[in-house]
Amino acid sequence: MLLSKLIETRRIDAELPPEIRAALVDSLFAPVLSLFVGALACSIIGATVAFSIGDAWIMAVSAAILLVGLLRVVSALLYKKANSGNPRLWERVYEYGAWGFSALIGLLCWLTVNGTTDASLQMIVTTTAAGYAATIAGRNAGRPSIALGQLTLCALPMAASLIVYPDLAHRALGLVVLMFIYGMIDITLSTRDVIIQALIMTRKEAALAARFEEQATRFDIALNNMSHGLCMLDEKDRLQVWNERFLELLNIKGAPVRVGIHISRLLRYCVQSGNSDARSLKTLFRQLALSFRRDRFDHVHISPDGKRTIAISRRLMSDGGAVVILEDVTERKNAQERIAHLAKYDDLTGLANRTQFHERIAGLLDAVDDKESQFAIHLIDLDRFKTVNDTLGHPIGDKLLKQVARRLGNLVGQSDTITRFGGDEFVILQTNVMRSQDASWLAQRISDEIGEPFDIEGQRIHIGASIGIALAPADGRNADELLKKADMALYSAKNTGRGSHCFFALEMEAAAQARRSLELDLREALAAGQFQLYYQPLVDLHTNRTTACEALLRWFHPKLGEVPPSIFIPVAEETGLIVPIGEWVLNRACTEAASWPRDITVAVNLSPMQFKDSALTLHVASALAKSGLPPRRLEVEITERVLLEECESTRRMMAELRELGVCISLDDFGTGYSSLNYLRKFPFYKIKIDQSFTRDLGQQHDARSIVEAIATLGAGLDKIVVAEGIETEQQMKMARAQGCHQGQGHFFGQPMSGAVIREWFAASAAARKQLVA
Asked: Alpha-carbon distance 256 to 485, whole Å?
């Protein structure tokens, strides 16, 4: 049946009148933009596949698709310029271009399906080809020979490639594509019949006459339902045609408007209605009433408060008249002004943003004099702001940032600029700095002001500000360099102590470079086997028996020697390297502890960064499984920094660890917030008193009271209390007297390597046997 339909279509096509054939050819070239979009889209898909699998042939086909597509666009433009001359010639031009383009799409499908096993890449190519094939019936149905050729060249290679693919699903899809080709051919032929009938009908005089009246009515309806106001003026600026929206925008719907009224009278009606002042009237008159020989587009305020904006455009006609269009663009103009504001100002605080900062600093650097003038950059970071966000919520944090912005605004001069870079980071450009002391005074005022408590929704909030200062032009002659050096100074200020400020110095740059070098070396240290674990005993203060050993990480650098943990651990945490390093420590410590006596546990420190890893519990379980160490013999030690961040997820992670049977200890208790609520909310097995209190046991009374209070609290909560940093016998006795259960420090033993700690266990066991004997 389809074959007979093809034969009949070919016979009818040969008998078509020349004007209908010309109209059909014209329809082929009509949507020029779609030719370009199709070529660009298909070439992008092909290039994406080529880049993904590194296939030069697919890349070549993609380039060919784009080239052929562009040639088709050029031919369409030439057709428009030729004003549709010689339809048969242009039909051939379109036909060969369409077939070539379709063949390239088919080739792209074949190469992709047979050149890769990546289903996503196969999907995007076959989907693109199917989409292109589906559009053929709509675009080229008027010329069925072209459409059928396109369908065959595009879809048949795709079907073949799917059928020969060694997968049942692909083969099934290939058969579906064959059915799709058959269906599209049928649709194309049916659509072609509809198009031919429509063209014949539109050329009948009776239909044209009847439709003219209908179109006139629809035009009137469309005219009065336009969102734009429209009017047509004759050569003497007299009103000929208008719509309701035109009268509405001018606020003269009740005025006696009629055909032939002069535009100047309309403007007088505007003034009488009270929606325009003299200046607006003059502008409107110039735009609408004066005769000019070019198009104009302008914005005119016509409301008394100046908040309403009308866009006016005028198109001159050949007879001297004009079509004028009015559009209410108030919301658009407000949005544009809003966007322009956001481009240079921070949305939360209203301060200048990074873009405006760079513009401002560029102007200052151009005008600065090396000898007589300079300016300062204050890079401000709020201390403890993250804690506020985590504990009180982001809405409180946002209000805090607004209050900080207001306080900073009260401190700077009129020529200074305050910028918010994002988060809790602010920058002040201080001008007219005659000497560095001027910058130091401002920084101190900032620290004092931000250090004062904030009152937000009944919450009394205490924060601080650390400030890094760079001076221009001495410290740099471009914004990036100055910010970099201010950041180095800020880093130094934080290390000095929060709430302080620091100027950039040359040695900071050297320190930053050394830190960067250390970071690079740290990335190689794990793979190079430069890390070792040492173990320090924890001793029962009443029986003098070793109960556990804490695993301590050591880095033996091939050039620098032993790098202290206080140096490389912060770098590892900042770079995220602490996660793989921590996983290695966990595995190594469990493996080592498996060879110890069965009553000895191993304690491993976990970083806050590790608690952000959702797979932490799996890492712990894996380490226990690989080593064969019972979970009860593993202790994980955390500090209060872990508890300050993401309380809900932290609580869930700790619960999972407890379900494994792992013990959890709170390390360095007494040095942070030391919230007693932590001891209630989290399942701690041990509390380790920071060594700073143990060290002062024999010297300061308050240290003894603190140790006694923590020990008593721990005993009441059924927690084991450990005194860290015991170095003398006196400290040991006093820690025991205050109620501590266990002790750790050099008095009991230095950190030892795995081999040494095993010998130490063996010697202790031998000594106990001899004592018993």
From this structure: 72
Structure token digits, residue 628: 């064969």
> What whole-number distance in Å separates Cα of residue 323 and Cα of residue 568?
75
User: What was the pLDDT predicted at 291?
Assistant: 37
Instruction: Return the number of other C-beta atoms located less than 10 Å from residue 613's C-beta.
Output: 18
| Residue 554: predicted pLDDT | 93
- Helix (H) or strand (E) run with residue 502 in it: strand 501-503
Q: Which two structure tokens, joined as six digits, stand for 289?
A: 């009433």
Cis peptide bond N-terminal to 537, omega within 30: no
Q: Say which residue the tokens 């070239």 belong to.
A: 29
Judge whether 558 and 613 are in contact, CB under 8 Å.
Answer: no
Q: Whole-angstrom Cα distance, residue 252 to residue 271?
A: 10
Angle in degrees, 0-180, between the axes of helices 647-660 and 616-627, rounded to the nearest 10:
20
Cα 731 from Cα 698, distance rounded (Å) = 7
Instruction: State the CB neighbour count (10 A cutoff) for residue 458.
Output: 5
Backbone angles phi, psi at 440, to 5 degrees: -65, -40
What is the model's pLDDT at position 292?
A: 39
CB atoms within 10 A of CB 212: 9
Cα four-point dihedral sign 483, 484, 489, 495? positive
Residue 719 to residue 725: CA distance in whole angstroms: 19
Contact 287, 313 (CB under 8 A): no
- Within 10 angstroms of residue 761's Cβ, the number of other Cβ atoms is 17
Q: What is the pLDDT of residue 594?
A: 94
Q: Which helix (H) or strand (E) holds 268?
A: helix 263-272
First-to-last C-alpha distance (Å) of the chain: 108
User: Contact 686/665 with Cβ under 8 angstroms?
Assistant: yes
Total number of residues shown for the chain: 773
Q: Measured between alpha carbons, how far is 420 from 422 in angstroms, rounded to an integer?
A: 6
CA distance 680 to 450: 33
Query: Using CA atoms, how far apart are residues 633 and 660, in angstroms rounded to an integer?
Result: 11
- What is the predicted pLDDT for the residue at 596? 94
| Secondary structure of 716-770 as H, E, C letters | HCCCEEEECCCCCHHHHHHHHHCCCCEEECCCCCCCEEHHHHHHHHHHHHHHHHH
Rounded to 5 degrees, what are φ and ψ at 378?
-105, 110
Q: State residue 602's pLDDT score.
A: 95
**% helix, strand, coil for the chain, step of 5:** 60, 15, 25
Q: Tell me how far apart the alpha carbons of residues 312 and 327 are, in angstroms, rounded to a whole number.
A: 7
Per DSSP, what are the bridge partners of residue 218? none
Ordered mean pLDDT values, 10 residues apiece, the chain (773 residues): 59 64 71 78 82 84 84 81 72 80 84 82 82 72 74 82 82 80 73 66 54 64 77 84 80 79 78 60 53 47 62 78 82 77 81 86 73 81 84 87 92 88 89 87 92 88 90 86 88 79 81 79 87 94 92 90 87 86 94 93 90 87 94 90 69 88 86 64 84 76 81 85 91 89 92 91 77 57
Exposure string for 119-133, b = 16+ CB within 10 A, e = fewer: eebbebbbebbbebb
